[in-house]
């Protein structure tokens, strides 16, 4: 790393001298360029000064206050859905290339895991009458929430930075010029950071916290009675910590969240067991013929998917720069990333509706085969959360462990089993691994995705299941009208997932409910059939085009 940092620093100023379009911001923001601090806020050495500007606790005189009852919107009659344009304020989106203002096509819904989350309809999963509201006559007694961080900058080494680098390289060769739709590219700068939550991303997790307080605030009475506060968990990457903090800030308020919840941060690093980052220990997760078959099939699909747009764009540049299919993905990702980081992106205007559909399909392929039913290691990686959820359902510590850490998962301090609300933050790949491990096959209806790009039968959509701030909820309910009265169901981004097709013993129920004991039995069987050691460490070959139910072929 150090070496390439130096190489870049020597190299970029040459480009600067030649064109003037590559600014200090490019150098600073390049993941290769180290940590220049030119316009990074806050300036080094600064901090708020509480002795000059004392806090509320010092100033006093807060006025009269009174807290109200805990909300329980989940048992109300109207649900706060996050639909279509909602949930993306204050981002702005242009129409795709070739469409006018009357177009209803919403580009942000075709960005795979880079889409902001939106509410899904239970009807899409064949439960037309189900609502995420607690069914009439039932009470919710426990929820387990698994949620993803909000919008972030690109991960290190992702396509956008490579695209920027390619432009810098081309600039260095000289003669580079842009015309027509691309004129602005001559003065464009790469301004994205890496890995961190963006301001919009923070708002997503904050709002998720607010929403869950409104829906389930009354479950806090459980802690009040016990005289204790909850443990919410996350991982150690900066964005994961900030995700849990923003969620807690929304849920408990600022600054109350500092005192009303214990946020547990579990290390994510190669070799460390952690349900939120199982790929760090599941060796096959990164093998081309096992855990990452989705990445290769998606790249292959992209080679031919953007022909006409690439031809159009290449006709508007001269000077030896030729945009490739990889650049099409790079620019589409810049569209997504610049929008969620900066609020708007000119790159979005370059692509047609069909391009966005193909971009989504690129992600559909990638996720279906890397972390969904088409992956031989998805269930194994989701098994850790499966074990943890089950432990909390049954109040029995997991044994034996699959990628769990004894220090954390066998301890009533770090892994309490008696909470009414659990909230775990994680990554999108892990959310999908978990849905696969839970055998929620209604989410994966239809034949395995066509590796060659026939989208006519595809109903799997990455932007629905793994967007920024995606969330999976298990509701435990008490329903006097049901027999037995202890019921349970699963909800993904507000859509109730039907269980009767994949949970033997669960009847067809219009609310997606099934007996708690039956669900627990099915999950135990599922846990037993997922062979963590073989799937993660075995020597086998998997291929795209097969629904493996997330497990390795034997
Ligand atoms: C840019 O040029 C450098 C030095 O020649 C090369 O190592 C690198 O691969 C190029 N990067 C891209 C994205 O073209
Ligand atoms: C859970 O159990 C622990 C240890 O027995 C106890 O201290 C705590 O108050 C309990 N929490 C709740 C919410 O019941
Ligand atoms: C388990 O957690 C402890 C405490 O953080 C850590 O020191 C240890 O390396 C972890 N072990 C594994 C195998 O994850
Ligand atoms: C998994 O990979 C790690 C790191 O390369 C290695 O130390 C470990 O032995 C591997 N585990 C198995 C079971 O192959
Ligand atoms: C795109 O171009 C390639 C190479 O010229 C060609 O083989 C392929 O059929 C084209 N794909 C489409 C969808 O037009
Ligand atoms: C730049 O333009 C000059 C003069 O037209 C030409 O000789 C040279 O080959 C061009 N360089 C590239 C990289 O296109
Ligand atoms: C980590 O997970 C492996 C695989 O399930 C297990 O064998 C090992 O005991 C775990 N280590 C710790 C410290 O929990
Ligand atoms: C968890 O703790 C119990 C009781 O201390 C112990 O019997 C059991 O072996 C532990 N489980 C694991 C997997 O370490
Ligand atoms: C809180 O809820 C959990 C899960 O339903 C339960 O195990 C625990 O006993 C409850 N604690 C109190 C004090 O009601
Ligand atoms: C998982 O779902 C499939 C149907 O999609 C079903 O055939 C299978 O029995 C289920 N597995 C378990 C462990 O229940
Ligand atoms: C894995 O299996 C293949 C095919 O049977 C074999 O050629 C290869 O040597 C094996 N690799 C390892 C590491 O055992």
From TrEMBL:
The keyword Flavoprotein does not apply. Keywords: Hydrolase, Signal. It comes from the Eukaryota. It holds the Pfam family His_Phos_2. Belongs to the histidine acid phosphatase family. The keyword Hydrolase applies. This is 3-phytase. It comes from Clohesyomyces aquaticus. Its EC number is 3.1.3.8. One of its GO terms (molecular function) is acid phosphatase activity. It is an enzyme of class 3 (hydrolase). Residues 1-24 form the signal peptide.
